Amino acid sequence: MANTFYASPPHLQIQHLCQHQHHKYLTSLPRRRPLHNLCFLPTQNRLFAFPQPRRSYFTLNALHSDPPHQRSVNSGRRNESYQQWDTLTSKLSGVANFPFLLLQMPQILLNARNLMSANNTALFAIPWLGMLTSLLGNLSLLSYFAKKREKEAMLVQTLGVLSTYVVVVQLALAQSMPFPYFLATSLVVLSGLFLNFMNYFALLNAPIWRFWEDFITIGGLSMLPQIMWSTFVPYLPNSILPGAVSFVIAVFAVTMARSGKLSEKGVKFVGGISGWTATFLFMWMPVSQMWTNFLNPENMKGLSAFSMLLAMLGNGLMLPRALFIRDFMWFTGSTWATIFYGYGNLACLFLLNIIGKEFYLAATVGLVSWIGMAFWRDSVVHGHSSPLASLGDLVFGSRK
């Protein structure tokens, strides 16, 4: 090697010597971590690289959900049809505000008339605990959609919070809801709306948001078993044991996750509790209604077919968006409410001859056509040969 080096022409000897010295300089430097072991943080127009610590730290996200998979399915496909369907499904979610608004208005107006006529006892038929459960569910889902930046779905949940809170105010005025509970509920509602929108616009301190996440996680997990148990009273003994036990479990799970004593999968599981408990609370509403229908079929005459149609329309309008962004939790809750709460109660009304055959058949054809269209269109924009492939992406892709 040495003889070959010095036998080279003078200009090549100088070049080789520089290369040799440069190689010695590089080999004398301390070894750096490989590039793939760096995490990159985009800040404004620059890219900063920071070495990852050896130990992995996991943060608790009380509203964690599997990320949308519309980016991973045919990610290179960004044609005009895809963008149009993306925009349309987002607008359909926004349109869902109108059926939900019309769904609440009759109850609000009826309560107002009863209050003005001093018929306060009529409002005692509305369970304030059920309203409180609905409020917590709406707030949890509002936080969930705020983190996913689903603006239209946020508006739907915000409308749900506000309309339900109006009913709560009416119950407090009628003194059917204890005033201390009303004050606590008002504080939670106002704080929840403020914190969610502050977080949406990235104006909220991280520790405050983590506290809110813990609160709705513990609250949702505590109330869900209690509501499920209370549905079947008096066939089950009247007890607060389910809520108390689930409260202890929720506090323990959140504490373990915050202290870093759970595995990554455990932290992810705890993080998903809030959104799923809110979804299950809404999914339990049709179960409770069906159980009431079974026990007292004569009371079905007081159930508004128009309200059930609005519930079916409102939830059905959000189905295409949930399918498009591959949000399994959102799709599950919306599908359940569309089929079992809206359409299921219409089926009960038809079987009891409360609504006509034409009304029921029109609702059936409309629902089947809408769901079929949503799956067909989604499969087209994602380049699938069958609508079942979109369902496979939703169900199995969400677990990847």
TrEMBL record:
Protein name: Maltose excess protein 1
PANTHER family: MALTOSE EXCESS PROTEIN 1, CHLOROPLASTIC-RELATED (PTHR34809)
One GO CC annotation: chloroplast envelope
Nucleotide-binding as UniProt keyword: no
Gene Ontology MF: a single term: maltose transmembrane transporter activity
Ranges annotated as spanning the membrane: 122-146, 153-173, 179-203, 239-257, 269-285, 305-324, 336-353, 359-376
Domain of life: Eukaryota
Keyword RNA-binding set for record: no
Native organism: Pisum sativum
Swiss-Prot/TrEMBL keywords: Membrane, Transmembrane, Transmembrane helix
